[in-house]
Amino acid sequence: MDNLFPGKRKLYEGKAKVVFPGDNPGEVYMVFKDTATALNGLKKGTIEDKGRLNAEISDILFRLLEKRGVRTHYLSKVNETTLRVKELRILPVEVVVRNVVAGSLAKRSGREEGTPLPRPILELYFKCDELGDPVWNDEHVLAFGAMSEEELTEVKEMAHKVNGILREFFGERGLELIDLKLEFGRAMTYGSAGEEVLGPIVLGDEISPDTCRFWDKDTQEKLDKDRFRRDLGAVREAYVEVLRRISN
Ligand code: TMP
Q1: Which residue has its alpha carbon closest to ligand 1 atom 4?
Q2: Quick one: which of 56, 64, 67, 224 has the fewest CB in 10 Å?
Q3: Whole-number mean pLDDT of the chain?
Q4: Model-level pTM?
Q5: For 90-117, what is each residue's pLDDT tens digit?
Q6: Domain boundaries, the chain
Q7: Would you put residue 205 in left (φ > 0), alpha (ψ -120 to 50) or beta?
């Protein structure tokens, strides 16, 4: 991985990304890594070139969403594996939107993977590694104070909008958006006394084959991280193909 930040203190290191302090207040650098995990971290590996591919795919998709009026943390791409983004106070709930039954929903519903849904299903997961990110509904979110009612309404509206835009975009490129995972937060700015001031809710994290499922519309071939999770082979080639489809 090329490193813009030799010796620089990390703010945070996750399974697929490292976050470094930015050069301006309220900004950070998000560096995409080649490492991959699955099964709650039990399965670990490396997908050659994944950092570069996911940074480029996320760059294209965040710019598309911004153009379509979705507020995101995206600011610019600074090198092959690094995006400059707004610093966020992340909301502690992940949002999954599903258009077709797959993955954990196939297990929980008993429906066969590949079954189309008559309307998208939006799911909420409490972000907590120790608990394995449990599924929550609106009532858990509100009773445990993870988000206010206004925040929950806004996050759900934004998630459906993002799903609609991306589903159409990928559909036009021969890819079916099966499901996707989104994270939201509030942009952090600083007041005159250096105090933290929280801005509006924006879409954060990444949008890539690590966090979405894409199937080829004609062949139903899986072109996402399920190739790694399920040892299907040709993992890197799938990410390259997704980037190729959205690059024109
Ligand atoms: P699931 O079917 O395993 O619940 O996954 C639903 C979608 O969310 C799928 O596109 C993969 C993505 N996802 C993540 O980005 N991170 C995770 O930790 C999990 C479990 C799923």
Answers
A1: 104
A2: 67
A3: 96
A4: 0.96
A5: 999 999 999 999 999 999 999 999 999 9
A6: 2-87, 89-234
A7: left
Is residue 99 lining ligand 1, measured as CB closer than 6 Å? no
Which of the listed residues 112, 170, 181, 228 should we mutate to test ligand 1's pocket, taking the one with most ligand atoms within 8 A of CB? 181
Alpha carbon of 247 to ligand 1 centroid (Å) = 24
The answer to whether residues 87 and 57 touch, using CB atoms and an 8 Å cutoff, is no
Token pair of 55 as six digits: 């940074």
CA Rg value for the chain = 18
pLDDT at 6: 76
What dotted CATH number matches 2-87? Answer: 3.30.200.20
Report the CATH number of the 89-234 domain: 3.30.470.20
For 11-62, write each residue's pLDDT tens digit: 999 999 999 999 999 999 999 999 999 988 899 999 999 999 999 999 999 9
Task: Tell me if domain 2-87 and domain 89-234 are identical in fold.
Answer: no
In the reported structure, the alpha carbon of residue 217 is separated from the centroid of ligand 1 by a whole-number distance in angstroms of 20
